[in-house]
Amino acid sequence: MTFLRRTVIAAAAAVALSASFAVLAQDIKPRLIRFGYGLNEASNQGRAAKVFAEAVEKASGGKMKVRAIGAAALGPDTQMQQALIGGAQEMMVGSTATLVGITKEMALWDTPFLISNAREADTLLDGPIGDKIRNKLEEKGLVGLVYWENGFRNLTNSKRPVTRVEDMDGIKLRVMQNNVFLSSFKTLGANAVPMAFSELFGALETKTVDGQENPYNTILSSKFYEVQKYLTVTNHVYSPWIVLVSKKWWDTLSKAEQAVLTDAAKASRDYERKDTRDEASRAIAELKAKGMLVNELSPAESERMRGKLTAVYADIGKEVGMDLWNDTQKELARIRAAK
Ligand code: TK8
Q1: From the alpha carbon of 72, which atom of ligand 1 is closest?
Q2: What local confidence, expressed as pLDDT, does residue 17 receive?
Q3: Which end of the chain has the lower number of beta carbons within 10 A, N or C?
Q4: CATH architecture observed for domain 30-337
């Protein structure tokens, strides 16, 4: 036996003796993190999930491995949230709108026309208001790490171009499983139907519903242009995604492991927002090239729609609490006044 080999064996024996078995086992077996999401791999969500996985693997020297699983293969948002709470799944990214049943303050992000541009979005979400809402998840068994951009939502349907609010009358419109969205679109005259995203393409294809609303990126990556003719630029709400961790599982991690996830989540957020914005800026032209008929609402009609949608503001204020509502308005005023 060579000197080197003997030394290595002796060192390994010393480590084995001093370390507890659990710690040693953990060192050998990488932490496996199932990271679920709803869109397909070739979407802004899929690309950013990959960036997150790579950052975690690199920073942990391969001791933490992320398996990113898209296309709702681990279930729709609401089902994954429950799996995280129960500890059966480690991580996910999904819409804040589907979390309202767990943390009612999330309904703030459903407020139509609350946020009007990327700077407002990033400053509000990454600032004290965003943190406050994110941190409310902990008492419910979830750790919210960062917000990603889903984006400004726009309306599509297979029936007719929507040029006036009245054109929405009777359109069967899929909305997220969320009361603000449900009442917003009922207010506009649509026949709003809550449904999980994973069922949406099929429902549009079979005409179970006539329309839906999502950011350009999703209309493109989920190929809604194959089953939807008309796209109306409404930008009616800015939709965030949120990266979640099972609190049950999080509490078993070392501080160093938690830091790996937090840092990788921030890196993925910065990548994701840029990627999403780049793609969104090209998307209208691509959707037109795929055959969609795109129309912008006239300023007057846009104003009418806004007027009707702001009717839900009082309900949201009640839901999230007037303190949070007022603090948000103050924070937005501050952001808008700052150069
Ligand atoms: C993906 C959903 C999607 C959301 C929706 O799982 O449901 O319409 O916009 O991004 O979270």
Answers
A1: 6
A2: 41
A3: C
A4: 3-Layer(aba) Sandwich (3.40)
Among the residues of the chain, which ranges form H helices? 3-18, 21-28, 44-59, 77-86, 118-126, 128-135, 179-187, 200-205, 216-221, 247-250, 255-289, 299-309, 313-320, 322-337
Q: Which residues pair with 242 in a beta bridge?
A: 94, 147
User: In Å, how far are 37, 86, 184, 248 from 79, measured between CA atoms?
Assistant: 11, 11, 24, 16
* pLDDT tens-place string over residues 231-242: 999 999 999 999
CA distance 203 to 208: 5
Cβ(334)–Cβ(325) below 8 Å:
no
Residue nearest to atom 5 of ligand 1 (CA): 197
Separation in Å, CA 141 to CA 92, 103, 134, 136, 306: 13, 11, 12, 10, 36
Amino acid at 262: T
| Residue with token string 């951009």 | 149
Look at residue 5 in the predicted model and tell me its pLDDT: 58
Measured in whole angstroms, how far is the alpha carbon of residue 323 from the centre of its chain? 25
- Distance from residue 79's CA to the centre of ligand 1 (Å): 13
Mean pLDDT on 96-115: 98
| Assigned token pair, 45 | 């969500």
